[in-house]
Amino acid sequence: xxxxxxxxxIYLEEDxxxxxxxxxxxDMKNKPAPLLNPGTHxxxxxxxxxxxxxxxxxxxxxxxxxxYIEIPQEIRDFYKMYRPSPLVRAYCLEEKLQxxxxxxxxxxxxxxxxxxxxxxxxxxAYYAKKQGLKGVTTETGAGQWxxxxxxxxxxLGLDCKVFMVKVSYEQKPFRREVMRTYGAxxxxxxxxxxxxxxxxxxxxxxxxGSLGCAISEAVEVAxxxxxxxxxxGSVLNQVLLHQSVIGLETKAALxxxxxxxxxxxxxxxxxxxxxGLISPFMGEKLRGEADYDIIAVEPSSCPSFTRGVxxxxxxxxxxxxxxxxxxxxxxxxxxxxxxxGGLRYHGMSPILSQLYDDGLMRAVSVEQTKVFEAAEQxxxxxGILPAPESSHAIRVAIDEALKCKETGEEKTIVFGLTxxxxxxxxxxxxxxxxxxxxxxxxxxxxxxYRAKLPKVD
Length: 457
Ligand SMILES: *Cc1c(COP(=O)(O)O)cnc(C)c1O
Description:
Distance between the termini: 58 Å
Strand content: 15-25%
Strand order of the largest sheet: 1-4-5-15-10-11-14
Oligomer: single chain
Number of strands: 15
Bound molecules: pyridoxal-5'-phosphate
Structural class: alpha/beta
Number of helices: 18
Helix content: 40-55%
């Protein structure tokens, strides 16, 4: 082990924790494109959005100007239950790789929901409660978001209705039961409880569902039931805002020891953890105060950034949600059976999409078996059993550290370790048994979905 003075884990003191979220849009010259009404193709007004989302969250969604938004005391109190999260120096991994690079990871898996998603779940539940609502509806794929939201809702005494993609509902009973333990009602999607669910079931008998379809059902229930609003765990501007707590803590911890990262790496599903992690660093980059090499990592099976197009698209299968301008594969795209449930969305955060289009960050895609090789290598030396999603970032951090070994560069690499993988052991089992494949969609397949993008001028 090195004799470096940097502690193995850097924790902030309670009074060093962020008091405000940072809104990177305030420093963006090119703002992310507005959400559009799917009928009129005009920008969604606060009033229109207010039918679906809580009022304070609508304000945050539309706020392109205020750099800092105070974190309410109640949310800060909840954060204290599991934050600050540690910034860990990966001494053991560095030694194993024999790299001159210095590797740090920000670990967000240290709460029962097992991921960073709780950071936004508690914020969204808080504003719903503040507005006097009865409850919220949402979708979940593998279950991380639903779990986080059910924890937040039980803490605040709100009702929580979760539409869970049917295949996960049936194949992943553990997360489903965690949600029910926290008092949420969990419905397999497509269900027969909604008009859109009935329609999808009639058109595709026996379908096992998709995230886009579960979103449509959750929105329908929120809109039809007085006292309910819909909440979403990623993609939206407001979610990146809440997740900025990850980046602010990371930056404060690095600043405390005068560490300047060269490279910041994160996995990207809808973009919320990566957007949150990079926000304060991107802010410095946008203001011309510092430069960082920022890398989004996505699965080769769902390559929104690296092979998608930057265009307005539907956020859901039922086409009830506003249109978002984003890097997208098309809203009908359903990735092959990869095991990173949190990285299967067809689109990407509009904020990150704009930053990527402006050349302020880059993206790489990685194959599933290579991701699990990295996950296992990491687990064996660092001890933490990583989520498959998080392991995408581990893969690229290791690859970059190995490049440093070739060149002798002592780069400082920071990556986001978004969660733990205890509920993903079937995926690990497939990997161990050599039964995991690396399906990569062909150009022809991608073109087919792209052809169905809505025409917006
Ligand atoms: C949901 C999830 C992700 C991906 O979501 P983003 O919004 O892109 O951050 C990554 N890691 C874990 C553990 C997740 O649960």
